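Our consortium's second objective concerns turning raw sequence data into structural hypotheses that experimental partners can test. To show how far this objective has progressed, the report includes one record in full. It was chosen at random from the queue rather than selected for favorable results. The single chain below, 499 residues long, was entered without modification.
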Amino acid sequence: MNIIKSKLFRRYLILGFFICTAGFIIAFYTNQLVIQAERQKYHRHYETSDIIEIIEAVQPEARMKTIQLMQKNRIIKRRNRNIILLDNRGALLTSTAPVAKDFHRMGIKPPHEFGHHPPPPPGHHPPGPMRPPREHDALRDHPFKTKRVQLKGNPTQELIVETYIGDPPDPRRTQILTRIVIIEIIGVGLGVLLTIFLIYRHFRKRTEEIETVLNNIRKGDLQSRMPIESNDEFGLAMQNFNVMADEIEQLVGKLRFAESTRRVLLGELAHDIRTPLASVRNFIEIVQTKEDKLTAQKKADIFDTCQTEIEYMTRLVDDLLFLGKIEEPSYRQNDVEIDLEDIIQTTAHNIKRQYPDIQFHFHAPQDLSLKLQMDEVLAVRLFRNVLDNAFSFARLNVHVEIEKIDQNLKITINDDWVGFHPSNLESFGMKKFSRENRSYAGSSGGSTKKISIGLGSVIMKKIVELYHGEFYAKNRESNDHKILGGQVNMILPSKNLSV
C-alpha cells in the first residue's frame, strides 16, 4: 500500500498508462491502414455486370483463359461466389466453384457425366472439379443470388454468375485478427519500453545531479545545492538534503568563525599572559636583590601586586578553558528549570562583598514568572560575569530590571559610572577588551586595584547565543548627551520560559 501512496509511483504509472494507450491507438490505426491497403490491392470490387461485360468482350475461345486470369488476380474472389462457363451443349468449360453439390443445385452435370468429353492432353489440367481453396468453406452458408447470361459469339456460351448478397465475411479473418493482436502487443510493448526508458533517464539525470553536487561539496563549495524540480519523493529527498547542506554550511561557518576568533583571542591573550608573568618575575627579583632596602609597606605593596596578577592569570585561564568548552561543536547544555531571581540575587550578594559601598537594586513585575529552562552552570556564569562587570564599573548603584516584551524576556543591567568606551561598544561580545587596571573605593576610603580581563563579554554573548537570544551593550545618556553609565541588555526567547 505504501508504494501506491507514493507520488513518484503514481506519476510514472499515469505516464506509462498514457504512453501504452498511445501505442495501442497507433497500432490500431496502423492495422486499419494495412487492412485498407490490402483490400484495395486484393479485393478490388467489380459489379456482376462489369464481369459479364469483360468476359463477353473477348473471343469465345479465350473466355475460359480470361476467367482463370480473373480468378488468379482475385478480381472475382470476394463478392462473387461462383462463375461458371458452359458451352452450347451445357458442358462445363470452367468454374470457380467445382463442387459436385453446386452442379446438382444448378442443374449442371459434372464433367465426368459427359462421356463424349475428350480427355485432356498430357500436362494439361482440365477445368473439371478441383478442390476449392480452404477459405471458401467459411462462405458456403452465406446467402447469394444467381444470374444466367447467354454470351454472344460463335459458338454460343452460357455464363452463370453467383454473387453474395451483402458483404461476405473475410475468409482470412483469423489471420487478420492474429496480425492485429500481434501489432497491438508490439505497440503496447514499445510503450512499456518507452516508459522504462523515461524512468531510467529521469533517475540517471537525478543521479548525475547528486554526483555533481556531492563533488562540489567535496571540493569545498558548500553553497552547492540540489535543484528541486518536483514535489514527489525525489523532490522531498532533495529538499531534505539541501536543509542538511545548509546546516553543514552554517556549522562549518561557525567553526571557521570560532577558529578565527580563537586565533585572535590567543594572539591577544598571549601578550596578556606574558605581562603578569613578567611583572611577578620582576617583583621577585626586586625582593631577592633589594630585600634589605625595602620597607615593610613597600614589600606589602609588592605582594599585593603579585597577588593581583596571579588572580588575573587564574581568571584568564579559567575564562579561556570555559570559552573553549562551550565553543566545541559537540557541547550540549543540560537544561533544567531554574529560578532566575534566585540566581541573580545570590550572585549579586556574593559579588557585593567585594563592593560594600555599592547598592544593588532588583526590579521585576510581580505577575511575571521568572522560571527558565536553562543550564544552571551557564546561568550562574552568565550573571556572575555581567554583575561582576557592572559592580566593577559602578560608582554607587547597580540596577537589574526584568520585563516581558513580545513574549520574550528582556534583562537589563545598568551601572552609574563612566560607561563603555566607543571602541569597546563596537567589539562588545566579539573580542576581549584591552587589559585595563580599574580601581574602586574600598570600605576604608582607599582604592583597591582590579585588572579587567575583557573576556567576560565574549563568554556572556556566547551563552546567550546558545539559547538563540540577543546580547548587546550601550551607554545611557541624559538629554544633553552626558553619559550616565553603561547598560547591558540580553533577550531570551519565550521558548526558554517555563510554563
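The partners drew two points from this record. Residues 225-331 form a domain with the Helix Hairpins fold (CATH 1.10.287.130). Confidence is low (pLDDT under 50) at residues 114-136, 437-453. Both points have been shared with the crystallography group to help prioritize constructs.
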